[in-house]
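Case study 2.
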Amino acid sequence: MTPRPVPARIVGESAAEIADSVRALVERGVLRAGDALPPVRALAEVLSVNRNTVVAAYRQLAGAGVVVTRGRGGTLVADRTPVAQEGYAAGTVLRDVGTGNPDPALIPEATAALPGVVGRPVLYGEPVIDAGLEQWATAWMGAGLAPAGRMRLTITSGAVDAVERLLAQALTRDDAVALEDPCFLASIHTVRLGGYRAVPVPVDAEGMTVAGLGAALDAGVRAVVCTPRAQNPTGASLSPHRAAALREVLADHPYVLVIEDDHFSLLSSQPYHSIIGVEHQRWALVRSVSKFLGPDMCLAVAASDPDTAERLSMRLSPGTTWVSHLLQRLTHALATDPAAMRTIERARAHYAERNAVFARRLTEHGVETSVGDGLNLWVPLPVPARAVSEQLMRRGWLARTGDEFVLADDAAGRRLRLTVHELSDADADRLAADIAAAVDTVMTQRMG
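Prediction:
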């Protein structure tokens, strides 16, 4: 899309004055996301200032996240539109089937474990990782990870916190990051909030594509965020062949930070296949407990190379930002409790079975749907998903459309992401029939 012309209203004699002028135009809506600022030389001539003054002004604006630079593509006003968030929609009476939430009935009960996690108080300067959790997590994280011998552990307040800190310790504003397309909403938000530049990598049934990753690396990305299984929203998991091919592509870029977000981990019905090669220098595997122990258990384990772990530890200094040892002990207690593990195994089977049954229902109604892994279904439609979603709202349903997850993949605009595992059989039958009816209505309207 060609940026629209910018009114010649930028003023100022110093870098600070020019930057303030641009900020004011953005705040008043005169400049909007995607608008191109004048080239440095052109603006310098208009304002009768040195080119270096304009360069300094644009650098201030980029550092503040007001603009992004695109090399020959120019300097553009940054996109600050809100990113859709996971979870229940607020203020609706509709039945929400786009939440992305786990089933609360299948989250292990923590009450019995709580008394055992209270020990002596932990004081400033003590180790930030609880000894019991560290021992358990070392075995959990090291299994299947090629460079496990160089692994160091860090505990963070969830996977999103881990990814944000990992990117922040390695990148500066406007650095390029390879993201799956379509992409997990929190990853889009994290990259945008950090002022990084998202480079989309297409996802197919076997996960991140080899050609897409190669193109992103050629474009100069400094980090790659990959979901090895149960990719959100598609449900794709890396096959052994695909993972090997991606490791081969990355072998020529050993210092690009590779982050694997294995968010579904213990609930996944698929094996873990890593794209982190044994010789790769900058990497991290992140596993949150929020899907199997509940979203309120804000804890994730990050296994990374020693240098990355050291940088992360500086951002989690004792006494300020460590993760509570009470929460760590509770996580360890539940993760090693046989009853809790049986609940997690039931949850794994439940999500897979309910998604498979609903996919068959849709297919029987003429909406061909395949099943991936994870909490959700990624449903292809023959018509735009927004129009189908509007029809579903009239039938009492609130669904999530694929365009919320898109970086560049226009095909996702004809997808619904559905969370159906909590529906009764009767409700599932009704939703499947309503989706088919909504599709028929939209097709009839478009033909008319």
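Confidence is low (pLDDT under 50) at residues 3-7.
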